[in-house]
Amino acid sequence: MLIKQQMAMVFNLDKCLGCNTCTIACKNVWTNREGAEYMFWNNVETKPGIGYPKEWENQNKYRGGWQYKANSVGPALRVSSKFWEMLNLFYNPVLPQMEDYYGKGPFTYTYEDLHSEESTKYSQPVARPKSMITGEEDIDIEYAVNWEDNGAGYYEGGSGELDHNFKDMTPEAKLAMLQFRDSFMMYLPRICNHCLNPACVAACPSGAAYKREEDGVVLIDQERCRAWRYCISGCPYKKVYYNWRTGKSEKCILCFPRLETGQPPACFHACPGRIRYMGPLLYDMDKIAEYANTENEQDLVKYQRDIILDPNDPEVIKEALEQGVTEDWLDACRRSPVYKMVKEWEIALPLHPEFRTMPSLFYIPPESPVRTAVEGENGRDHYDMIDGDNVLPSLEAFRIPIKFLASMLSAGNEAEVEKALQRQLAVRSFRRSERVEGVADVAPLEAAGLSVQDARDMHRLLALAHFHERFVIATSKREKSTSTAPYIERGYAGFDELAPGKAPKRRESFHGKRDVVGS
User: How many domains does the chain have?
Assistant: First the structure.
């Protein structure tokens, strides 16, 4: 058992407002400079839709992430073998182009025209779109980060039909869901997933991308980066960006300077909907290669949960302390909201687990709202529900198709999505019976596999949690550690364990292999 530490996250899609406050917070802190105009380390997409960049979910187009490889210790990168990568080192044919982010690149407006005496003398002043790369004015604006905002799968050009989560649906079913009467919409906030098995790290030819040992944050060493941009192709979520001004790749750093002072990332802190949760996890790295190469994609959610270790298990505690994990980190793992939602209650799911990167960001699938009261034939108000007068919807009556959510959050395993939604509905039903009807009905909880205490804890965390309950930031205090384990310096893609007075040594692990994991 090789125990590793990971800061993990949960986004509750049931509460996302689509306000993009998180995006603004990230932009103001990290990507507010030349060369980073088109970088949206944090963005909120409207689904259905093709997202940012265009069709990022379609790995037949971009070849990101990992793929199953028979008779192998671990999966293989989709983007390339080492030999193919060397042949195409100076030309990457599966790289997203600028038009996939913006039509003709990032743009601003000719604001100077609004104050020019010449331009305002005879007509109303107009600020025209202007390229921030070439300086060309009056460019055509064809696509941008929020182009599909609130579009419910349709804008001029029909991007909803290209949503990759419709891939297993018939054309007739897909078309029906994009019609006004049956259309649906949800928000999907995205940041770097800081994966347990990051494809960007494995794809980097120069070893600039690495995963920090102390908290699992995936970073790109700006000194080592040589702009090969295979990290962009390797990342299936397309959360690595190339800075055209500096010639370096950049990505979300999970605000690690804030984490090191006990604060949550800027986007987490700014979210008005309080949809974001953060907490530490312990996981068994020895199982990653085997589990990431699971043949049946629908088992990946179950196996990822199996990798996460129980911080209350005496055997895990003993082994963790021997491997250098501090008591402070273990205590934080026991209080982690992420552990509760992912491992205990199983209501949070990874985004596209079929990419086999084992992301550390999980999503609670959105529910449908309660039905509003309408005027009945007999002159009295009643709830117009399929199942009678029940105010809560059944899974069959959900506005967002289960099949669509499963394609996005569980590699098509509808049972995982149904379990997560059914448990949320069970808690809502229990709390409503308790507070409105005055008699607690535990039958929905029992049917969903929850206890009364589980229901109270879920309600507390999802609806009433204070700041310190939503954000549990682990501290290390390595200078006070009594462990005999050597000091950890850089991470999987670079140098590994560094004992005092000894030269760094290269790590022999699957994270350094770009062709086949564990080869």
Answer: 1
